[in-house]
C-alpha cells in the first residue's frame, strides 16, 4: 500500500506535521528537537553584542515561540519545560567564560507583567494550561469532527484507557467549569466580552500573580468575605518563605 500511495512507512515514534506520535509514556526524548532548535538559535546570537533589552525581545518574540505549536498539541514533560526555560534564562542573563552568569531574579518572577515587577515573558507552564483549557472548551462547545470523536470515545463511549489529550483536559476541568456558562444555545466563556474562548484571557487568569497584586485585589476589589479568604490563601502561598 505504501508503494501504491507513494507514502513512507514508519514505526512509532515518528514525527507527523511537526508533532511526535508515540505510544506509551510521554518521554522527554521525544522533544529533543525543540531543545535543538532553541540551541541552534542561541548559538547564532550568543556572541553578538546584545543588550539585555535586545535579549529580552528575542526571547519574547523568537525563541519562546518555537515550542508553542507542540505545547498546544501535546503536554510537554516537566523536564522538557524546565530545560527550555533554563536555556531562555541563561541566554537572558548572559555567559561568562562559557558558564552562565548569576540569575538575580527567578524565571517565575520574570514571567510576571511589568506592572508587577516582571518583564512580561510568557510562562511556558501557563501557556500549556491555557491550551488544555482551550481543548476542553472546544470539546464542550462541540460542532467539529474532533469534538464528536472525543465525545463518542470518552464521554458517551466506553474507552477503558485514556489518551494524554483527555488527561490534560481533565486537569483543566475545575478551571474551565469556573469560567463557562452553558445555555441551550451555546457554551459561553465568561472571561471574554463576546463569550468566545481566547487563550489570552485564560492565560491572564492562570498566570502566577505577585503578592502585591493580590493584596491590591483584597483591599480594593472584593467585598465578599469568601472571596477575601480565597485571596488571603493566594497571598500566603505566593510570599516566599523566610530562611
Description:
- This protein is mainly alpha-helical.
- It has 3 domains: 14-122, no CATH class; 127-206, no CATH class; 209-243.
- The chain is 53% helix and 7% strand.
- It has 13 helices and 6 strands.
- The strands form 3 sheets. It has a two-stranded antiparallel ribbon with strand order 1-2. A two-stranded antiparallel ribbon has the order 3-4.
- A hairpin with a 2-residue loop joins strand 3 and strand 4.
- The longest helix is centred in the middle third of the chain and has 18 residues, at 124-141.
- 17% of the residues are buried.
- The model is unreliable at 214-223 (pLDDT under 50).
Q: How many domains, in number, for the residues?
A: 3
Element order: H for helix, E for strand: HEEHHHHEEHHHHHEEHHH
Radius of gyration, CA atoms, in whole angstroms:
21 Å
- Number of separate helices: 13
Strand arrangement across the biggest beta sheet? 1-2
Given the helix and strand composition, which structural class is it? mainly alpha
Question: What's the total count of β strands?
Answer: 6
Q: Main beta sheet: strand number and arrangement? A: 2 strands, antiparallel
Termini gap: 66 Å
- What are the segments in which pLDDT stays under 50 over at least 5 consecutive residues? 214-223
Principal-axis shape: globular
Please state roughly what percent of the residues sit in beta strands, choosing from under 5%, 5-15%, 15-25%, 25-35%, 35-45% or over 45%. Answer: 5-15%
Mean pLDDT across all residues, rounded?
A: 82
Helix content: 40-55%
Amino acid at each position: 500500500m505504501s508503494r501504491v500511495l507513494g507514502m513512507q512507512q514508519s514505526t512509532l515514534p515518528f514525527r507527523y506535521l511537526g508533532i511526535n506520535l508515540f505510544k506509551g509514556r510521554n518521554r522527554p526524548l521525544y522533544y529533543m528537537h525543540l531543545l535543538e532548535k532553541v540551541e541552534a538559535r542561541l548559538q547564532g546570537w550568543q556572541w553578538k553584542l546584545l543588550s539585555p533589552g535586545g535579549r529580552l525581545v528575542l526571547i519574547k518574540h523568537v525563541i519562546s515561540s518555537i515550542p508553542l505549536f507542540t505545547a498546544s498539541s501535546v503536554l510537554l514533560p516537566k523536564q522538557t519545560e524546565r530545560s527550555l526555560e533554563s536555556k531562555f534564562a541563561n541566554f537572558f542573563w548572559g555567559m561568562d567564560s562559557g558558564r552562565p552568569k548569576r540569575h538575580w531574579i527567578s524565571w517565575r518572577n520574570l514571567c510576571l507583567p511589568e506592572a508587577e515587577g516582571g518583564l512580561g515573558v510568557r510562562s511556558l507552564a501557563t501557556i500549556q494550561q491555557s491550551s488544555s483549557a482551550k481543548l476542553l472548551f472546544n470539546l464542550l462547545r462541540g460542532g467539529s469532527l474532533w469534538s464528536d470523536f472525543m465525545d463518542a470515545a470518552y464521554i458517551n463511549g466506553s474507552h477503558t484507557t485514556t489518551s494524554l489529550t483527555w488527561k490534560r483536559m481533565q486537569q483543566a476541568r475545575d478551571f474551565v467549569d469556573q469560567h463557562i456558562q452553558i445555555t441551550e444555545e451555546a457554551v459561553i466563556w465568561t472571561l471574554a466580552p463576546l463569550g468566545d474562548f481566547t487563550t489570552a484571557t485564560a492565560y491572564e487568569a492562570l498566570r502566577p500573580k505577585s503578592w502585591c497584586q493580590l493584596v491590591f485585589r483584597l483591599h480594593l476589589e472584593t467585598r465578599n468575605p469568601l472571596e477575601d479568604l480565597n485571596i488571603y490563601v493566594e497571598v500566603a502561598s505566593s510570599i516566599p518563605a523566610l530562611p
